[in-house]
Amino acid sequence: MQASAIRFLQHLPLFASCSPEHLQQVANVTTEHRYEKGAVLFQRGDACDGMHVLVYGKVKLSVSSRSGSEKVVEIIYPGQSFGEAIMFMAGSYPVMAQTLEDALVLFVPATPLLALLDSDPQLARRMLAGLSMRLHGLLQDVASYSLQGAVARVVSYLLQALGEGEHAGAVTLPVNKQVMASRLNLTPETFSRVLQKLSEQAQIVVEGREIHIPDANKLQQLIEVA
């Protein structure tokens, strides 16, 4: 376990510049957890006593209302970490974490990791930079949800996923349409209506989770007139 943990951790931006000694210290306390699709890693309100790193699979971070509706706050992909912000606060999780597919997660407990941060200022700065980038991304999402209509949100996502400078191609949704709708702060019904509208106005073709875009300029025009 320690050897495989070191191999994975040393390729993460967070730990890439750590000395072999520090990497070994982290690996010594890191535990490996395998989860089946739909497994809950932690519930909202659970005490946070460390950080998680996703090796493979996908994990959604979400909150649920009293009525039972769910809002997906973030989707975690392989190579990303989560939980470290709450770990610093020694608080409880404000979200639930659940796997969207079979997943392998590394867990690094707080006490030894915080001790390592005390001895490695560069690691502390990299962790702060990573947290800042994620916060910036979440703030951009909030601004987008507040200022953009449903069509603009979906089009913006598709264009970003297609890639800058690409004029045509296919985008594969990383999660099912219900989760994708929640991530874009839309109801599944609204998301479906938007895709239908884009099929009519921009000739996109929706085949399950794969969306074929024949002309990105037509999508861009829909944002400009929205």
From TrEMBL:
Gene3D superfamilies: Jelly Rolls, Winged helix-like DNA-binding domain superfamily/Winged helix DNA-binding domain. It comes from the Bacteria. The keyword DNA-binding applies. InterPro entries: cNMP-bd_dom (IPR000595), cNMP-bd_dom_sf (IPR018490), Env_Response_Regulators (IPR050397), HTH_CRP (IPR012318), RmlC-like_jellyroll (IPR014710), WH-like_DNA-bd_sf (IPR036388), WH_DNA-bd_sf (IPR036390). Residues 14-134 form the Cyclic nucleotide-binding domain. Keywords: DNA-binding, Transcription, Transcription regulation. The keyword Transcription applies. Residues 148-217 form the HTH crp-type domain. PANTHER family: CRP FAMILY TRANSCRIPTIONAL REGULATORY PROTEIN, REGULATORY PROTEIN YEIL. This is Crp/Fnr family transcriptional regulator. It comes from Vogesella oryzagri. The lineage of its organism: Bacteria, Pseudomonadati, Pseudomonadota, Betaproteobacteria, Neisseriales.
